[in-house]
Protein backbone atom coordinates (compact mmCIF):
# COMPACT_ATOMS: atom_id res chain seq x y z
CA UNK A 1 0.00 0.00 0.00
CA UNK A 2 1.19 3.49 -0.72
CA UNK A 3 2.20 6.05 1.85
CA UNK A 4 -0.71 8.42 2.51
CA UNK A 5 0.36 12.02 2.03
CA UNK A 6 -1.62 15.12 2.83
CA UNK A 7 0.64 16.99 0.45
CA UNK A 8 -0.03 14.42 -2.25
CA UNK A 9 -3.35 16.05 -3.14
CA UNK A 10 -2.77 18.90 -5.57
CA UNK A 11 -4.79 21.93 -4.57
CA UNK A 12 -5.65 24.16 -7.50
CA UNK A 13 -8.19 26.82 -6.65
CA UNK A 14 -10.47 27.80 -3.83
CA UNK A 15 -14.20 28.11 -4.09
CA UNK A 16 -14.04 31.26 -2.00
CA UNK A 17 -11.43 33.99 -2.22
CA UNK A 18 -7.88 33.16 -1.19
CA UNK A 19 -5.25 35.27 0.54
CA UNK A 20 -2.22 36.90 -0.95
CA UNK A 21 -3.60 40.39 -1.49
CA UNK A 22 -1.34 43.15 -0.22
CA UNK A 23 -3.58 43.85 2.72
CA UNK A 24 -2.65 40.56 4.37
CA UNK A 25 1.07 41.29 4.66
CA UNK A 26 3.51 43.95 5.74
CA UNK A 27 4.87 46.28 3.09
CA UNK A 28 7.64 43.79 2.34
CA UNK A 29 4.97 41.38 1.02
CA UNK A 30 7.10 38.58 2.45
CA UNK A 31 6.22 36.20 5.26
CA UNK A 32 8.80 35.62 7.97
CA UNK A 33 11.54 33.17 6.95
CA UNK A 34 12.85 30.92 9.75
CA UNK A 35 15.89 28.65 9.55
CA UNK A 36 16.12 24.97 10.44
CA UNK A 37 17.84 23.89 13.68
CA UNK A 38 18.97 20.28 13.90
CA UNK A 39 18.77 18.70 17.35
CA UNK A 40 22.38 17.74 17.94
CA UNK A 41 21.69 15.86 21.18
CA UNK A 42 19.17 13.55 19.48
CA UNK A 43 21.67 11.09 18.06
CA UNK A 44 22.83 9.97 21.50
CA UNK A 45 19.34 8.69 22.33
CA UNK A 46 18.58 7.31 18.87
CA UNK A 47 16.00 10.02 18.26
CA UNK A 48 16.45 10.05 14.50
CA UNK A 49 14.40 10.32 11.32
CA UNK A 50 13.42 7.28 9.26
CA UNK A 51 16.79 7.35 7.47
CA UNK A 52 18.84 7.94 10.63
CA UNK A 53 19.45 11.67 10.13
CA UNK A 54 18.94 14.21 12.92
CA UNK A 55 15.46 15.68 13.48
CA UNK A 56 14.95 19.41 13.60
CA UNK A 57 12.72 22.39 14.20
CA UNK A 58 12.31 26.02 13.21
CA UNK A 59 12.20 28.52 16.10
CA UNK A 60 11.42 32.22 16.01
CA UNK A 61 11.99 33.83 19.40
CA UNK A 62 9.26 35.69 21.20
CA UNK A 63 9.49 39.33 22.14
CA UNK A 64 7.83 41.90 24.35
CA UNK A 65 4.90 40.49 26.31
CA UNK A 66 5.37 37.13 24.56
CA UNK A 67 8.95 36.51 25.67
CA UNK A 68 7.94 33.74 28.07
CA UNK A 69 5.09 32.29 26.01
CA UNK A 70 5.60 29.28 23.72
CA UNK A 71 3.64 27.83 20.82
CA UNK A 72 4.85 24.47 19.48
CA UNK A 73 3.40 23.44 16.11
CA UNK A 74 3.77 19.77 15.12
CA UNK A 75 4.15 19.37 11.37
CA UNK A 76 1.77 17.06 9.51
CA UNK A 77 2.29 14.99 6.40
CA UNK A 78 0.58 11.60 6.47
CA UNK A 79 2.03 8.27 7.57
CA UNK A 80 3.71 5.19 6.14
CA UNK A 81 2.33 1.72 6.83
CA UNK A 82 4.69 -0.78 5.23
CA UNK A 83 8.36 -1.18 4.34
CA UNK A 84 8.00 0.06 0.77
CA UNK A 85 6.10 3.21 1.67
CA UNK A 86 8.49 4.01 4.53
CA UNK A 87 11.54 3.48 2.29
CA UNK A 88 9.96 5.89 -0.20
CA UNK A 89 9.23 8.35 2.59
CA UNK A 90 12.79 8.32 3.96
CA UNK A 91 13.99 9.76 0.65
CA UNK A 92 11.90 12.88 1.21
CA UNK A 93 11.53 15.72 3.71
CA UNK A 94 8.98 13.55 5.53
CA UNK A 95 11.61 11.01 6.46
CA UNK A 96 14.98 12.73 6.37
CA UNK A 97 16.38 16.08 7.44
CA UNK A 98 18.68 15.87 4.42
CA UNK A 99 15.70 16.76 2.24
CA UNK A 100 14.02 19.25 4.56
CA UNK A 101 13.72 22.88 3.54
CA UNK A 102 16.45 24.78 5.34
CA UNK A 103 14.13 27.77 5.69
CA UNK A 104 10.35 27.80 6.19
CA UNK A 105 7.79 30.58 5.92
CA UNK A 106 5.89 31.29 9.14
CA UNK A 107 2.31 32.27 8.31
CA UNK A 108 -1.07 31.93 9.99
CA UNK A 109 -0.72 30.89 13.63
CA UNK A 110 3.07 31.15 13.25
CA UNK A 111 3.12 34.67 11.80
CA UNK A 112 5.06 37.40 13.62
CA UNK A 113 2.68 40.16 12.48
CA UNK A 114 -0.11 41.30 14.81
CA UNK A 115 -2.41 42.04 11.86
CA UNK A 116 -2.09 38.38 10.80
CA UNK A 117 -1.88 36.65 14.18
CA UNK A 118 -3.20 38.97 16.90
CA UNK A 119 -2.87 36.68 19.93
CA UNK A 120 0.33 34.71 19.28
CA UNK A 121 2.47 36.89 16.98
CA UNK A 122 5.08 37.73 19.65
CA UNK A 123 5.30 34.31 21.29
CA UNK A 124 8.20 31.93 20.86
CA UNK A 125 6.86 29.97 17.86
CA UNK A 126 8.26 26.56 16.95
CA UNK A 127 7.56 24.25 14.03
CA UNK A 128 8.77 20.73 14.82
CA UNK A 129 9.52 18.89 11.59
CA UNK A 130 7.88 15.54 10.98
CA UNK A 131 10.21 12.78 9.79
CA UNK A 132 9.05 9.53 11.40
CA UNK A 133 5.78 8.54 9.73
CA UNK A 134 3.68 7.69 12.82
CA UNK A 135 2.66 11.06 14.30
CA UNK A 136 5.74 11.20 16.58
CA UNK A 137 4.70 7.93 18.26
CA UNK A 138 6.72 5.03 16.84
CA UNK A 139 9.36 2.90 18.57
CA UNK A 140 11.25 0.28 16.59
CA UNK A 141 13.41 -0.30 13.52
CA UNK A 142 13.90 -2.48 10.47
CA UNK A 143 17.57 -3.19 9.88
CA UNK A 144 17.10 -4.88 6.50
CA UNK A 145 15.51 -1.73 5.06
CA UNK A 146 17.64 0.67 7.16
CA UNK A 147 14.54 2.22 8.71
CA UNK A 148 14.35 3.84 12.13
CA UNK A 149 10.92 4.20 13.71
CA UNK A 150 11.77 6.68 16.45
CA UNK A 151 8.88 9.11 16.54
CA UNK A 152 8.44 9.01 20.32
CA UNK A 153 12.15 9.55 20.87
CA UNK A 154 12.07 12.51 18.46
CA UNK A 155 9.23 14.01 20.47
CA UNK A 156 11.16 13.59 23.73
CA UNK A 157 14.43 14.92 22.30
CA UNK A 158 12.72 17.96 20.82
CA UNK A 159 10.91 18.81 24.03
CA UNK A 160 14.12 18.43 26.05
CA UNK A 161 15.97 20.70 23.65
CA UNK A 162 13.25 23.34 23.72
CA UNK A 163 13.06 23.20 27.51
CA UNK A 164 16.83 23.72 27.67
CA UNK A 165 16.49 26.65 25.29
CA UNK A 166 14.01 28.54 27.43
CA UNK A 167 10.66 26.77 27.27
CA UNK A 168 11.07 25.58 30.87
CA UNK A 169 10.43 29.20 31.94
CA UNK A 170 7.18 29.47 29.99
CA UNK A 171 4.27 31.15 31.70
CA UNK A 172 1.99 30.18 28.80
CA UNK A 173 2.29 27.25 26.39
CA UNK A 174 0.21 25.89 23.53
CA UNK A 175 0.86 22.63 21.70
CA UNK A 176 -0.71 22.61 18.25
CA UNK A 177 -0.53 20.59 15.08
CA UNK A 178 -2.16 20.15 11.69
CA UNK A 179 -3.39 16.88 10.14
CA UNK A 180 -1.00 14.07 11.20
CA UNK A 181 0.47 16.75 13.47
CA UNK A 182 -3.02 17.39 14.81
CA UNK A 183 -3.29 13.72 15.72
CA UNK A 184 0.15 14.02 17.33
CA UNK A 185 -0.98 16.99 19.41
CA UNK A 186 -3.82 14.84 20.75
CA UNK A 187 -1.55 11.87 21.45
CA UNK A 188 1.05 14.02 23.24
CA UNK A 189 -1.17 16.64 24.87
CA UNK A 190 -0.94 15.40 28.44
CA UNK A 191 2.78 14.66 28.02
CA UNK A 192 3.27 18.28 26.98
CA UNK A 193 1.35 19.50 30.01
CA UNK A 194 3.50 17.37 32.31
CA UNK A 195 6.66 19.15 31.16
CA UNK A 196 5.71 22.29 33.05
CA UNK A 197 5.21 23.44 36.60
CA UNK A 198 1.71 24.01 37.88
CA UNK A 199 1.80 27.77 37.36
CA UNK A 200 2.16 27.52 33.56
CA UNK A 201 -1.04 27.84 31.52
CA UNK A 202 -0.85 24.81 29.19
CA UNK A 203 -3.38 23.91 26.51
CA UNK A 204 -3.47 21.98 23.23
CA UNK A 205 -4.93 22.55 19.77
CA UNK A 206 -5.64 19.92 17.11
CA UNK A 207 -6.27 21.27 13.62
CA UNK A 208 -7.76 18.71 11.18
CA UNK A 209 -6.69 15.93 13.52
CA UNK A 210 -10.06 14.20 14.01
CA UNK A 211 -9.50 11.22 11.74
CA UNK A 212 -12.51 8.91 12.03
CA UNK A 213 -12.74 5.14 11.99
CA UNK A 214 -15.35 5.51 9.27
CA UNK A 215 -16.82 3.10 6.73
CA UNK A 216 -15.80 3.92 3.15
CA UNK A 217 -18.07 4.03 0.09
CA UNK A 218 -17.50 0.31 -0.55
CA UNK A 219 -18.43 -0.69 2.98
CA UNK A 220 -14.85 -1.28 4.10
CA UNK A 221 -12.60 0.54 6.52
CA UNK A 222 -9.74 1.94 4.47
CA UNK A 223 -8.25 4.14 7.17
CA UNK A 224 -8.49 1.49 9.89
CA UNK A 225 -6.64 -0.97 7.68
CA UNK A 226 -4.00 1.63 6.93
CA UNK A 227 -3.60 2.66 10.57
CA UNK A 228 -3.24 -0.99 11.54
CA UNK A 229 -0.19 -1.15 9.30
CA UNK A 230 1.27 2.04 10.79
CA UNK A 231 0.73 0.91 14.37
CA UNK A 232 2.06 -2.60 13.78
CA UNK A 233 5.09 -1.72 11.67
CA UNK A 234 6.29 1.23 13.73
CA UNK A 235 5.68 -0.15 17.23
CA UNK A 236 3.19 2.56 18.13
CA UNK A 237 1.41 0.38 20.69
CA UNK A 238 4.26 0.92 23.14
CA UNK A 239 3.44 4.62 23.37
CA UNK A 240 -0.35 4.79 23.28
CA UNK A 241 -2.22 6.20 26.29
CA UNK A 242 -2.83 3.56 28.94
CA UNK A 243 -6.43 4.67 29.50
CA UNK A 244 -7.19 3.52 25.95
CA UNK A 245 -4.70 0.66 25.52
CA UNK A 246 -6.04 -1.08 28.61
CA UNK A 247 -9.50 -1.50 27.09
CA UNK A 248 -9.12 -1.34 23.31
CA UNK A 249 -6.85 -2.67 20.57
CA UNK A 250 -3.86 -0.55 19.55
CA UNK A 251 -5.28 0.51 16.19
CA UNK A 252 -8.43 1.85 17.84
CA UNK A 253 -6.22 3.87 20.20
CA UNK A 254 -4.62 5.63 17.24
CA UNK A 255 -8.02 7.12 16.38
CA UNK A 256 -8.72 10.44 18.18
CA UNK A 257 -12.38 9.58 18.79
CA UNK A 258 -11.17 7.05 21.37
CA UNK A 259 -8.79 9.50 23.05
CA UNK A 260 -10.14 13.04 23.26
CA UNK A 261 -12.71 12.52 26.02
CA UNK A 262 -9.99 11.25 28.40
CA UNK A 263 -7.35 13.94 27.89
CA UNK A 264 -6.89 15.92 31.10
CA UNK A 265 -5.29 19.01 29.56
CA UNK A 266 -7.63 21.61 28.01
CA UNK A 267 -7.92 20.82 24.30
CA UNK A 268 -9.39 22.67 21.33
CA UNK A 269 -10.60 20.79 18.25
CA UNK A 270 -10.65 22.69 14.98
CA UNK A 271 -11.99 20.64 12.10
CA UNK A 272 -13.90 20.89 8.86
CA UNK A 273 -17.03 18.72 9.07
CA UNK A 274 -16.35 17.65 5.48
CA UNK A 275 -12.62 17.10 5.86
CA UNK A 276 -11.38 16.80 2.27
CA UNK A 277 -8.39 14.64 3.13
CA UNK A 278 -10.70 12.08 4.70
CA UNK A 279 -13.09 12.27 1.75
CA UNK A 280 -10.24 11.60 -0.69
CA UNK A 281 -8.20 9.05 1.23
CA UNK A 282 -10.53 7.41 3.75
CA UNK A 283 -14.14 7.65 2.54
CA UNK A 284 -13.78 7.44 -1.24
CA UNK A 285 -10.23 6.38 -2.14
CA UNK A 286 -9.60 4.85 -5.56
CA UNK A 287 -9.36 1.41 -3.96
CA UNK A 288 -12.95 1.73 -2.71
CA UNK A 289 -14.20 3.45 -5.87
CA UNK A 290 -12.42 1.71 -8.78
CA UNK A 291 -14.96 2.86 -11.37
CA UNK A 292 -14.54 6.52 -10.39
CA UNK A 293 -18.13 7.16 -9.33
CA UNK A 294 -16.85 9.64 -6.75
CA UNK A 295 -14.13 11.26 -8.86
CA UNK A 296 -16.06 14.36 -9.91
CA UNK A 297 -17.59 14.83 -6.45
CA UNK A 298 -14.16 14.60 -4.82
CA UNK A 299 -12.70 17.21 -7.17
CA UNK A 300 -15.45 19.72 -6.40
CA UNK A 301 -18.26 19.30 -3.89
CA UNK A 302 -20.53 21.26 -6.25
CA UNK A 303 -20.50 18.19 -8.51
CA UNK A 304 -21.79 15.78 -5.85
CA UNK A 305 -25.21 14.24 -6.43
CA UNK A 306 -27.90 13.88 -3.78
CA UNK A 307 -26.83 10.43 -2.59
CA UNK A 308 -23.21 11.54 -2.30
CA UNK A 309 -24.19 14.62 -0.34
CA UNK A 310 -26.21 12.43 2.00
CA UNK A 311 -23.19 10.16 2.51
CA UNK A 312 -21.12 13.23 3.40
CA UNK A 313 -23.85 14.52 5.73
CA UNK A 314 -23.74 11.16 7.51
CA UNK A 315 -19.97 11.55 7.86
CA UNK A 316 -20.50 15.01 9.39
CA UNK A 317 -22.96 13.50 11.87
CA UNK A 318 -20.42 10.80 12.73
CA UNK A 319 -17.79 13.44 13.43
CA UNK A 320 -20.12 15.39 15.70
CA UNK A 321 -21.15 12.22 17.54
CA UNK A 322 -17.50 11.20 17.95
CA UNK A 323 -16.81 14.20 20.19
CA UNK A 324 -19.87 13.81 22.40
CA UNK A 325 -17.82 12.75 25.43
CA UNK A 326 -15.22 15.42 24.73
CA UNK A 327 -17.86 18.16 24.79
CA UNK A 328 -18.88 17.30 28.35
CA UNK A 329 -15.82 19.12 29.70
CA UNK A 330 -16.20 22.88 29.96
CA UNK A 331 -12.43 23.37 29.77
CA UNK A 332 -12.42 22.15 26.17
CA UNK A 333 -13.26 24.13 23.06
CA UNK A 334 -14.31 23.27 19.53
CA UNK A 335 -14.92 24.88 16.16
CA UNK A 336 -16.42 22.43 13.64
CA UNK A 337 -17.25 24.35 10.48
CA UNK A 338 -19.19 22.95 7.54
CA UNK A 339 -16.45 23.45 4.99
CA UNK A 340 -14.67 21.24 2.46
CA UNK A 341 -11.22 21.97 3.83
CA UNK A 342 -8.25 20.48 5.64
CA UNK A 343 -5.96 22.40 8.02
CA UNK A 344 -7.03 25.96 8.72
CA UNK A 345 -4.43 27.38 11.15
CA UNK A 346 -1.34 27.49 8.94
CA UNK A 347 -2.73 29.28 5.88
CA UNK A 348 -3.20 32.98 6.36
CA UNK A 349 -6.51 33.20 4.47
CA UNK A 350 -8.22 30.70 6.73
CA UNK A 351 -6.48 31.63 10.00
CA UNK A 352 -7.06 35.39 10.07
CA UNK A 353 -8.13 37.70 7.25
CA UNK A 354 -10.91 39.96 6.15
CA UNK A 355 -12.99 37.05 4.81
CA UNK A 356 -11.74 34.12 6.87
CA UNK A 357 -14.14 31.27 7.72
CA UNK A 358 -16.41 32.06 10.65
CA UNK A 359 -19.18 30.62 12.77
CA UNK A 360 -21.62 33.11 14.32
CA UNK A 361 -19.46 35.93 12.91
CA UNK A 362 -16.36 34.79 14.81
CA UNK A 363 -13.31 33.60 12.89
CA UNK A 364 -10.85 30.83 13.69
CA UNK A 365 -8.00 32.92 15.13
CA UNK A 366 -10.35 34.92 17.33
CA UNK A 367 -12.12 31.76 18.51
CA UNK A 368 -8.91 29.98 19.49
CA UNK A 369 -7.57 33.11 21.17
CA UNK A 370 -10.81 33.61 23.09
CA UNK A 371 -10.66 30.00 24.27
CA UNK A 372 -6.96 29.97 25.20
CA UNK A 373 -7.10 33.26 27.13
CA UNK A 374 -10.54 32.40 28.56
CA UNK A 375 -12.13 35.54 27.24
CA UNK A 376 -15.23 33.51 26.44
CA UNK A 377 -16.43 29.94 25.96
CA UNK A 378 -15.96 28.71 22.39
CA UNK A 379 -17.98 25.60 21.57
CA UNK A 380 -19.22 26.01 18.02
CA UNK A 381 -20.66 23.47 15.59
CA UNK A 382 -21.74 24.84 12.24
CA UNK A 383 -25.07 24.13 10.56
CA UNK A 384 -24.88 21.51 7.75
CA UNK A 385 -23.72 22.22 4.20
CA UNK A 386 -24.57 24.40 2.30
CA UNK A 387 -25.45 26.99 4.94
CA UNK A 388 -21.95 28.41 5.55
CA UNK A 389 -20.99 31.05 2.98
CA UNK A 390 -17.68 31.93 4.67
CA UNK A 391 -15.90 28.67 3.80
CA UNK A 392 -12.69 28.54 1.79
CA UNK A 393 -13.60 25.27 0.10
CA UNK A 394 -10.84 23.37 -1.67
CA UNK A 395 -11.28 22.36 -5.29
CA UNK A 396 -8.95 19.76 -6.79
CA UNK A 397 -7.70 18.39 -10.06
Major β-sheet strand ordering: 5-2-3-6-4-9-10-11-12-15
- Biggest sheet layout: 10 strands, mixed
What would you give as the CATH superfamily? Alpha/Beta hydrolase fold, catalytic domain
Kindly provide the radius of gyration, computed on alpha-carbon positions and rounded to a whole number of angstroms. Answer: 20 Å
The proportion of residues in beta strands is: 15-25%
Q: Supply the number of helical segments.
A: 11
Q: Give the overall silhouette.
A: globular
> How are helices and strands ordered from N to C?
EEEEHEEEEHEHHEHHEHHHEHEEHEE
What is the level-2 CATH architecture name? 3-Layer(aba) Sandwich
CATH topology: Rossmann fold
What does this structure look like?
It contains 11 helices and 16 strands. 52% of the residues are buried. The model is unreliable at 1-27 (pLDDT under 50). It has a 10-stranded mixed sheet. A two-stranded antiparallel ribbon has the order 1-16. It has a two-stranded antiparallel ribbon with strand order 7-8. It has one domain: Rossmann fold, CATH 3.40.50. The chain is of the alpha/beta class. It is globular, with a radius of gyration of 20 Å.
Question: Any chance you could write out the topology, listing elements then pairs?
Answer:
Elements: E1 11-14, E2 32-38, E3 56-60, E4 69-74, H1 83-89, E5 103-106, E6 124-128, E7 140-142, E8 147-149, H2 151-164, E9 172-178, H3 180-187, H4 189-193, E10 201-207, H5 222-233, H6 242-245, E11 267-272, H7 276-283, H8 295-299, H9 306-322, E12 333-337, H10 348-351, E13 358-359, E14 362-363, H11 364-372, E15 379-381, E16 394-396
Parallel strand pairs: 4-6, 4-9, 9-10, 10-11, 11-12, 12-15
Antiparallel strand pairs: 1-16, 2-3, 2-5, 3-6, 7-8, 13-14
Amino acid sequence: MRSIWVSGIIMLVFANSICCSDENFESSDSPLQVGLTLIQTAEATGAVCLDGTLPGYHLHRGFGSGTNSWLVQLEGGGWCNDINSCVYRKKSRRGSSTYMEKVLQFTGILSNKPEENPDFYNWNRVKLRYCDGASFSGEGSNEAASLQFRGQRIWVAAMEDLMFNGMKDATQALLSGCSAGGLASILHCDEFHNLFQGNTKVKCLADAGMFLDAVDVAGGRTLRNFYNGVVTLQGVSKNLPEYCASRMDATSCFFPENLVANIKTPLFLLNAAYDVWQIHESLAPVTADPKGYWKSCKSNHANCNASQIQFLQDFRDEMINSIEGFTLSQQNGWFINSCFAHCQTERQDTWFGTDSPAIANEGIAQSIGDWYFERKTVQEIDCPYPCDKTCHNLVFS
